[in-house]
Each structure stands twice: as C-alpha cells, then as structure tokens.
Amino acid sequence: MKPETACIHAARDKSHNTGAVAVPIYQSATFAHPGFGQSTGYDYSRTQNPTVEHAEKLLAALEGGAGASAFSSGMAAIATLMELFSPGDEILATDDLYGGSIRLFNTISAKNGVTTHYVDTSELSAIESAITEATKAVIIETPTNPMMNVTDIAAIKKLIGNRNILLIVDNTFLTPYFFNPIPLGADIVIHSGTKYLAGHNDTLAGFLVSKTAELAEKLHTLKNTLGGVLSPFDAFLVVRGIKTLALRMEKAQQNAMKIANWLKGQPKVTDIYYVGLPDHPAHELSQRQARGFGAMISFRVDSEATAQNLLNKTELVLYAESLGGVETLMTYPVTQTHAEVPEPQRLARGIDGKLLRLSVGIEAAEDIIDDLERAM
Question: Cα angle at 96 between 95 and 98, to 5 degrees?
C-alpha cells in the first residue's frame, strides 16, 4: 500500500457493521463488563479507548512498527519515554534539539539520575567516542530543530551494533509520509502529533511507535501508569488530519522549495537552512534515506532588527511557536522554542537573534513570498 493510501486506509476498522466511514468518537471514560470475568477489551479510557486505539494502530502501520502509544502532547510522550531508564543510565542526544526536550532532560531526567550528553549526531565519530557502558539510548532529531542537520540512521544503527542501546528518532518534521526510521534500524519513533499529523493547529497529541511488540507493551504500561493519555476527541482530530497528510506534505514541500530559492536571492538573508536545497550538506543523505525534504526552513538575516521587523510586519505569515499546520508560521527560536537553553549553548548551536524558523503552509507560495518581501 502506497503511503498516501495508507494514510486513509491503513487502520480501517472492519469489525463494526454501522458503515461509518469516519472513526467514531467513543467519548466514554469507562466501559461496562458483559459479566464477571468478561471484558469487551475496553475497561477504562486511560488504559485503552477504541478511538485512541484506532489512532495508535494507524501510526504503527504508517511507521512500520509493532505498536504505538498515544499521549496528550509530544512532551508527554517524551516524558513517558524517559521512564524506560534508571538512575545511572546515560543518554546521547542530538546537540541541536528542541528546547522543550533539553529542558526535560536537564531538569526532570537529571533529577531522576539519568544523564544526557549532547553530541553532533551527524558525525559518527562523535557518537562513537561518547558511548560508554552506561549508555542506554541515542536520541535523534532529523532534521534537527532549528538548524536542519540530518543524521544517517542506518549508519548509527550499524555503529550501535548488538549493544543494548535504543535508537530513538523524532520524526515530527518529516512524518511517516516522507520518512520511516524503523526500517533503517530505529527502535522507537517519536511524533508530536500536534504538528503535521493533526495538521490544523487545533489539537495537542504525541505518539511513540515501537519496533517490537515487547517494547510497545512496556510503553503502553508506562502510558497507563503515568496517565498522560490522548483524549478520544483529540484522537479523532489526529486521524482526520492524517487522511490529508500526503496532500498537505506535498503542497507544503513544493512551497518550501519555492520560498527557499527566493530567500537565496534576498540581500538581507545571509544563510538558509533547508535540506531540499542541493547545496545543503545533507541533501544527498536525505535523498537516500527519505522520500522528501519536508517544509521546515530556518534562515539567518543581517541583523536582529531585520528579524524582528519580519516578525512584526508580515500579515499572512503568522508569528507563532508551533509548526506543521496549514498556515505558514514564523518562529523566533531565541525567545520561543529555545528561550530556556543557556545562552552559551544556544550561540554554540547558531541560535541567535538573527535566526528565524519558517514552517511553510499550504497557501499559494507567491502570496507568502509577497508577504515576506513587503516585510523585508
């Protein structure tokens, strides 16, 4: 089944006879037992709910995983993921990572005795030299947020070999429509379902997709125990959003390519970070391991004044912190996504007052370019 077909049909429920095309919303916290010692398979919605289960099965099918767990947000998913680890464990994480993940690792995870070391995961030698006997996982974003660095998943899996180290990949930016880390060796795939999967900036969601049934069961148990579960209505919105994922990703990527090429000709733009441009260092790697480049662009301008002028004066491009919706959004990482990352770390990663991040939507690219040009 092709990815665009799978987005619509991969988890279709054939067990009921209502003929409903859309997944029903089972807005129930609890489910009655047919009798003593009997169950319909559903007891309590924190443990499992039919609508949420449909969303989980859909994500597992799209990613090629054995199972998935759905959460109330992307951060709820990552926080639950970290409960796989124990005091004394060490994690290697991409050094250019979403600020919320850094905050979690440096505070809650550190308090729980789990140490995170940040390395450039696009450099295999950096990972190899950082692995110790205490290393239990390598956590990767690819492309990274916000500098759009790309990691070779298959190469890292080969490097890990038979060691007891989980390979965990955040696939929020590319989605399973463009990229599938599990066939390349990933053990767990993370999604902020809030972003491209739901796709309309109207709900929060998170997912963990597991390569094996054993790992999926562990994460399901943790989800049930901690309770940060996805609601039935939000699960419905995610499933509805995924039905148009292929169309939205294709259109947004087409727009991103046009906008990135336009940015190249702007005298006030000094650097462009978009994997789809042939001069991006990881362009060829992306062509090998993914089916597309996505629609996330970061770019640097000549001054903080120019950056803030763009944020203040665009009309169609909205100044907002999220990404992956149908609207084009512009984010200022230094005060938004990475505001709590210490300044020396931010600057070392290139995140300064001149950097902007663009989540390209599905509007007419010409209108977005006109809007940026007026503001520029």
Answer: 115
Q: How far is CA 155 from the centre of its chain?
A: 21
Question: Which residue is catalytic, options 89, 118, 187, 195?
Answer: 195
42, 46, 218, 258: the active-site residue: 46
For the chain, domain boundaries: 3-242, 246-375
Q: Is residue 12 annotated as a catalytic residue, yes or no?
A: no
Mean pLDDT across the chain: 96
Confidence of residue 16 (pLDDT cuts 50, 70, 90): low
Nearest of 311, 312, 310, 330 to residue 320 by alpha carbon: 330
Q: How many Cβ atoms are within 10 Å of 227's Cβ, its own excluded? A: 12
Judge whether 172 and 195 are in contact, CB under 8 Å.
yes
Rounded to whole angstroms, how far apart are CA atoms 305 and 301?
9
337-to-11, 227, 356 alpha-carbon distances in Å: 33, 25, 11
SS3 345: helix
DSSP single-letter state for residue 105: I
| Annotation marks residue 195 as catalytic | yes
Q: Is 98 a catalytic residue?
A: yes
DSSP label at 106?
Answer: I
CATH number corresponding to 3-242: 3.40.640.10
pLDDT tens by residue, 155-193: 999 999 999 999 999 999 999 999 999 999 999 999 999
CA distance 116 to 113: 10
pTM for the whole structure = 0.96
- Given a contact cutoff of 8 angstroms between Cβ atoms, the answer to whether 99 and 86 are in contact is no
Active-site entry in 89, 95, 152, 170: 170
> What does the alpha-carbon distance between residue 8 and residue 219 come to, in Å, rounded to a whole number?
26
Asked if the model's pLDDT at residue 342 lies above 90, the reply is no
CB 54 within 8 A of CB 26: no
Spatial CB neighbours of 44, under 8 Å, sequence gap ≥ 6: 29, 30, 31
Q: Can 170 be counted among the known catalytic residues? A: yes
The correct CATH number of 246-375 out of 3.90.1150.10, 3.30.360.10, 1.10.10.10, 3.50.50.60 is 3.90.1150.10
Residue 371, pLDDT score: 98
Q: Give the active site residue among 26, 96, 98, 300.
A: 98
